Amino acid sequence: MTHTITAFERSPDGGMGLARDTRVRWAFEEVGQPYDVRPVSFAAMKEPAHLALHPFGQIPTYENGDLVLFESGAIIFHIASCYPGLLPEDANARARAITWIFAALNTVEPPILEIAIAKFQEGDKPWSKERLPLIADRIRQRLGQLSARLGEAEWLDSEFSAADLTMVSVLLRARPSGILNEFPRLAAYVARGEARPAYKRAFAAQLAFNTAEPLTG
Fold it and tell me: What are phi and psi of 64, to 5 degrees?
C-alpha cells in the first residue's frame, strides 16, 4: 500500500525544511521507502475532511490503507518501527532512542516554538518585547543541557537513529533566532544531520514542492 502524507500547499518558511513534513520525508528517505504527498491549503486544514485525519487541523498526517496517524513524532516512530535503519536492534539502545524522541519533542522543542509564536503571532502585544528575552533564556538553558549531554559524541547514542533525526529537525527551528550558533557542538551536530544523503533528498523534495508553479485549472 502507498504511504501518503499531507504537507502545506505552500509552507510558511518557503520550503526551507522547517515544516514538520520535512522530518517525515527524511524518515522515509532513511529507510528507503517511497511516499506520496498530498498538499493541503490553510483553509482546507480546517475543513471536516482534514480534521477527520488530524483533529487539531495541522500537518503532517499519514495514511496507509486503513491506518491514519497524526503528529510527526508518532509518524516517525511508526516508520522506524516498520522498517530497519532508524531504531537499534538492541532492546536497551532502542529504548534510549525512543526516550530521546520524546525529549526532542516534549522538552527541547516547546521553548523553540514559543519564540516563533512570540515574534510572529504576539509581536503586536505590548508585553511581547519583554517576553522574548525570557523565552530565549529558556531555549539557552535547554540547549546548554543538551550540548553538555552530547559532548564530543557524533550522535545522541552510538549510532544515528530516529532520535537524532527528530532532535536535528527540532534544533533546525532554533537556527533563525541565532541561538543555535551559540552552541558550537549542537551546530556541528545539526550540520552532520544535514549532510546525510537522506536529509538532502528530503530537503530537496520539500523545497521543490514549495517552489513549483501552482497548478491552474
Answer: -155, 100
What 3-state DSSP class applies to 11?
coil
Per the CB < 8 A criterion, the answer to whether 5 and 70 are in contact is: no
pTM over 0.90: yes
Name the burial class of residue 184, with classes exposed (0-12), middle (13-18) and buried (19+) by CB atoms within 10 angstroms of its CB.
exposed
Can you give the pLDDT at residue 217? 41
Cβ contact 211:15 at 8 Å: yes
Q: 57: alpha, beta or left, given left = phi > 0 and alpha = psi -120 to 50?
A: left
Q: Are 111 and 135 in contact (CB under 8 A)?
A: yes
Q: What is the mean pLDDT of the chain?
A: 92
Measured CA distances, 163 to 16, 107, 156, 169, 187 (Å): 21, 13, 7, 10, 16
Look at residue 194 and tell me whether its pLDDT is greater than 70.
yes
Contact 48, 59 (CB under 8 A): no
